[in-house]
Amino acid sequence: MPLLKANDNAMRDVLSRAKVIAVVGHSDKPERTSYQIAQFLRRAGYTVYPVNPTVKEIDGQPSYSSLKGIPEQVDIVNVFRRSEYLSEIVDEAIAINAKTVWAQLGVSNQQAAQKALSAGLNVVMDACLKIEYMRLGIGEIDSAS
User: Fold this and answer.
1) Which residue, 141, 101, 134, is CA-closest to 117?
2) pLDDT score of 139
3) What are the pLDDT digits (tens) for 89-129?
4) CATH number assigned to the domain with residue range 4-135, chosen from the 4 options 3.10.20.90, 3.30.559.30, 3.40.50.720, 2.60.40.10
5) N or C terminus: fewer CB in 10 A for the chain?
6) Helix (H) or strand (E) segment spanning residue 132
7) At residue 133, what are phi and psi to the nearest 5 degrees?
8) Which stretches does DSSP call E strand in the chain?
């Protein structure tokens, strides 16, 4: 099974069906990309759970120390951590039965990707979820907002 980045239809399917996204490495600083992308995802209608053990809450929403603490089924694990952390994040994603691991631009690890694929997860590496969402025309959200 190939990585989804090469397959627009598969990526569109993942983004269209997803309801719950865990943002691993979600910052509480509005100037950070992880914060901005998470805000975009909320405006697009997704339920977004911040995962960051160093932050108690973000904009009044609890931040979780790991994926295991999230109280509902996660569709996409969106990763804003360095590539060397991907393997352990994939392990957690497998443990909670997430459907997709999506590593942001600049984040990639072939062994972690293979582990996720072998466990039946969809995988996107080195791609911005917001950019792909906009490029694929998933929703009617204003990209400037």
Assistant:
1) 101
2) 77
3) 999 999 999 999 999 999 999 999 999 999 999 999 999 99
4) 3.40.50.720
5) C
6) helix 129-135
7) -60, -50
8) 20-24, 47-51, 57-58, 61-62, 76-79, 100-103, 122-124
Burial of 87 (0-12, 13-18, 19+ CB in 10 A): middle
Distance between CA 66 and CA 132 in Å, rounded? 26
Distance CA 65, CA 60 (A): 16
Tokens 């590496």 belong to residue:
125
What is the Cα–Cα distance from 89 to 74, expressed in whole angstroms?
A: 13
3-state secondary structure of 57: strand
What tokens appear for 15 in the block? Answer: 């983004």
Measure the CA–CA gap between 125 and 106, rounded to whole angstroms. Answer: 8
Q: Where are the domains of the chain?
A: 4-135
Q: Which of 89, 88, 84, 86 is nearest to 74 (CA)?
A: 89
pLDDT score for 1? 35
> Tokens 């569109």, residue?
12
Closest CA to 41 of 69, 55, 61, 71: 61
Please report, as a single letter, which amino acid is at residue 51. Answer: V
